[in-house]
């Protein structure tokens, strides 16, 4: 049965796990967190925080680890830099620098050791308390026009429990994701999640609907994560905890629903997709596209022709 919404259950906090080692981007990530790699001229993690703020979440908790200090610096004031830009009357860059520190109230907690996404979320328990909360993974950037997170918050207010974002992937890709078994609801873009399988072989996947990096979690997830044994890869998996909640009723932390997302998602978790994301973002920028697109077309045309 759908929950009736009241202010005590409003989602106001976002949790952004950012403690991963970023090994796929070495040596760039030896001293720079992967979350700080730029998409054109803005670090990936700023897009994620902007998405949370756009959905009405202005309390953001970063789960960080060793060598992530530059994330904290990025969302802090940079007085000397601001003063240098002010002296030069460089208002445009001054505003860009201030934007990140004015975005939201950003808090930090250290994970200590990277023991999986579930463990990272568990580190947020003291800050979040007994409230529903959003989890946004920095590897997934969602198109600003799609308002996925806001839709997920609305679904939580209607149905209660937890809500995950699901995206249809090709059969050969299902083994890269957590995969959901689903049944329809009265809403065309909302399903009930009956089971979740982490990275199944293609022939054992319950569907082609894969879990992507946006979640609205009921606070009951903390108790489940606290007793969830390490799963795949020896890590505590958020998928395993949500699978447990999917079996429960509304009085016990359940159920779990999925929002079927058909919008724009950018995966920055590997080099090829990261490069695609940078090019797409550059082509969408009015200040860059006019010069960049003609160059890109001629560059690709020359490559297609091959050596003379």
TrEMBL record:
Pfam families referenced in this protein's UniProt entry, alphabetically: NTP_transferase
Leading EC class: transferase
Enzyme Commission number(s) from the entry: 2.7.7.9
Catalysed conversion reaction: alpha-D-glucose 1-phosphate + UTP + H(+) = UDP-alpha-D-glucose + diphosphate
Similarity comment: family membership: Belongs to the UDPGP type 2 family.
Keywords tagged on the record: Nucleotidyltransferase, Transferase
Protein name: UTP--glucose-1-phosphate uridylyltransferase
Gene3D superfamilies reported for this sequence: Spore Coat Polysaccharide Biosynthesis Protein SpsA, Chain A
GO biological process: UDP-alpha-D-glucose metabolic process
Domain Nucleotidyl transferase stretches: 13-276
Any one Gene Ontology molecular-function term assigned to this protein's record: UTP:glucose-1-phosphate uridylyltransferase activity
Record InterPro entries: GalU_uridylyltTrfase_bac/arc, NTP_transferase_dom, Nucleotide-diphossugar_trans
């Amino acid at each position: 049965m759908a929950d009736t919404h009241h202010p005590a259950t409003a989602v106001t906090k976002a949790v952004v796990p950012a403690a991963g080692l970023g090994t796929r981007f070495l040596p760039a990530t030896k001293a720079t967190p992967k979350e700080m790699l730029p998409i054109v001229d803005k670090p990936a993690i700023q897009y994620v925080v902007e998405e949370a703020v756009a959905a009405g979440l202005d309390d953001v908790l970063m789960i960080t680890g060793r060598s992530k200090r530059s994330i904290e610096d990025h969302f802090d004031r940079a007085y000397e830099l601001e003063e240098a830009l002010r002296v030069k009357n460089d208002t445009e860059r001054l505003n860009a620098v201030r934007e990140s520190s004015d975005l939201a109230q950003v808090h930090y907690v250290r994970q200590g050791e990277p023991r999986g996404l579930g463990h990272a979320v568990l580190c947020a328990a003291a800050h979040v308390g007994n409230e529903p909360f959003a989890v946004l993974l920095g590897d997934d950037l969602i198109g600003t026009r799609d308002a996925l997170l806001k839709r997920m918050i609305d679904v939580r207010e209607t149905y209660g429990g937890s809500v995950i974002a699901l995206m249809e992937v090709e059969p050969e890709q299902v083994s890269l994701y957590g995969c959901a078994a689903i049944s329809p609801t009265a809403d065309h873009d909302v399903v009930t999640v009956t089971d979740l399988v982490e990275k199944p072989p293609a022939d054992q996947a319950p569907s082609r609907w894969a879990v992507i990096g946006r979640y609205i979690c009921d606070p009951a997830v903390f108790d489940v994560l606290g007793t969830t044994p390490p799963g795949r890869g020896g890590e505590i998996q958020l998928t395993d905890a949500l699978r447990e909640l999917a079996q429960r009723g509304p009085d016990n932390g359940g159920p779990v629903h999925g929002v079927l997302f058909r919008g724009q998602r950018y995966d920055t978790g590997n080099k090829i997709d990261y490069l695609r994301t940078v090019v797409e973002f550059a082509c969408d920028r009015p200040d860059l596209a006019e010069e960049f697109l003609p160059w890109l077309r001629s560059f690709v045309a020359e490559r297609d022709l091959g050596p003379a």
